[in-house]
Design brief:
The protein is an alpha/beta fold. The protein has helices spanning 16-24, 40-56, 68-75, 96-103, 133-145, 156-165, 189-197, 219-233, 251-258, 290-300, 304-322; strands at 6-10, 29-35, 61-63, 79-85, 106-110, 148-150, 171-172, 201-204, 238-240. The protein has one domain (6-106, 171-322): Metal-dependent hydrolases (TIM Barrel), CATH 3.20.20.140.
């Protein structure tokens, strides 16, 4: 069986067309966002929509719960869908809801989305006070049941605290190194070294605000960045988390940035940004374009085995370890 192709973050405006594009691109598994600022009941409503899609398109997609479902997807020519939360809002202040979310199929959760949460500080806060007491307990609960802690959108001190606190490897599913492009969402070298050193994963983002030269980023520049990251952190710690927001209307940016907590649209990575989604780079428009990245990495000098890992095998290994509950749980 060929090595799997896995994208560890998408928030598309889902449709049969996108599901078919995933199959055309040979995408075997995708981590999809099912909540930004939703309440618990609203999150469940999004899961209901997904259950209907699984029912309507059983030849294209399958619900993912364990890493074995990646093999199932490959064997049946489908894409396994793994659910994640980009904000802990659905669990409110109730640690018992972490396990309930896991039972509903959630396999990833960020502890904050840009702003302060009950668990930690986001990367847009002026003061990053780090992981809270509640946050530390939630990390322990996620470790216990087999839910991956996603560092994306957290502040640097909060990220450091999570890496130190977690008894299991954690993931930065969609961000890039700060040394390549100093966006507020990208992460410093010392933190990436600490993450990789503890067995964690780095998912490189293709969202233009996270790319050097934005929408005009060249494939060669992206692949050179991946090569430098491999030399610093090890190629086995690297993957893709595209952050693809395909077919979303520009109005969705307001929901992503502000939810219900603000009346002012937050432009995100910097005040020079305009509202609305930026154009994707020419070499990655949708799920049919992962082959461009593979070819670019091979041209950069990676071996076939290394490219297989970055394009999905590393995530598959991480899922196999991260989705299993602790012994005795």
């Amino acid at each position: 069986m060929r090595a799997p192709l896995i994208d560890c973050l998408q928030y598309a405006n889902w449709s049969p067309e996108i599901f078919r594009q995933m199959r055309a691109g040979g995408v075997d598994a995708v981590h999809v966002t099912v909540a930004y600022h939703e309440t618990f009941s609203e999150m469940v409503g999004n899961l209901v929509k997904w259950n209907r899609w699984f029912e309507l398109f059983p030849d294209l997609i399958v619900k993912g719960r364990t890493a074995r479902d990646i093999d199932l997807a490959q064997n049946t020519n489908r894409t396994a869908i793994f659910f994640g939360l980009q904000n802990p809002g659905p669990i409110r202040a109730d640690i018992g809801l972490v396990e309930i979310c896991h039972e509903l199929g959630i396999r990833f959760m960020q502890l904050t989305y840009n702003m302060q949460s009950l668990l930690g500080s986001g990367c847009f806060e002026e003061t990053d006070s780090g992981l809270t007491q509640f946050g530390r307990q939630v990390v322990g609960e996620m470790n216990r049941i087999g839910m991956v802690v996603d560092l994306s959108h957290a502040g640097i001190q909060t990220i450091r605290d999570i890496i130190d606190c977690s008894g299991r490897p954690v993931a930065l599913t969609h961000a890039n190194p700060e040394w390549w492009h100093p966006a507020r969402r990208n992460v410093s070298d010392d933190v990436l070294r600490a993450l990789a050193g503890r067995g964690g994963m780095i998912g490189f983002s293709l969202y233009p605000h996270h790319l050097k030269d934005g929408s005009d980023c060249r494939l060669e520049s992206f692949c050179d960045m991946v090569a430098e990251a491999a030399s610093r952190y090890g190629s086995d710690r690297l993957g893709i988390g595209s952050d693809l927001c395909q077919d979303q209307p520009d109005s969705v940016v307001e929901w992503m940035r502000t939810g219900r907590w603000s009346k002012q649209l937050q432009f995100g990575e910097g005040s020079r940004e305009r509202p609305g989604f930026p154009h994707m780079p020419s070499w990655f428009k949708d799920n049919r374009d992962f082959g461009h990245i593979r070819a670019g990495l091979l041209k950069t000098g990676f071996s076939t085995v290394e490219v297989d890992g970055i394009m999905g095998a590393n995530w598959a290994r991480f899922f196999a370890e991260g989705f299993e509950p602790e012994a005795g749980s």
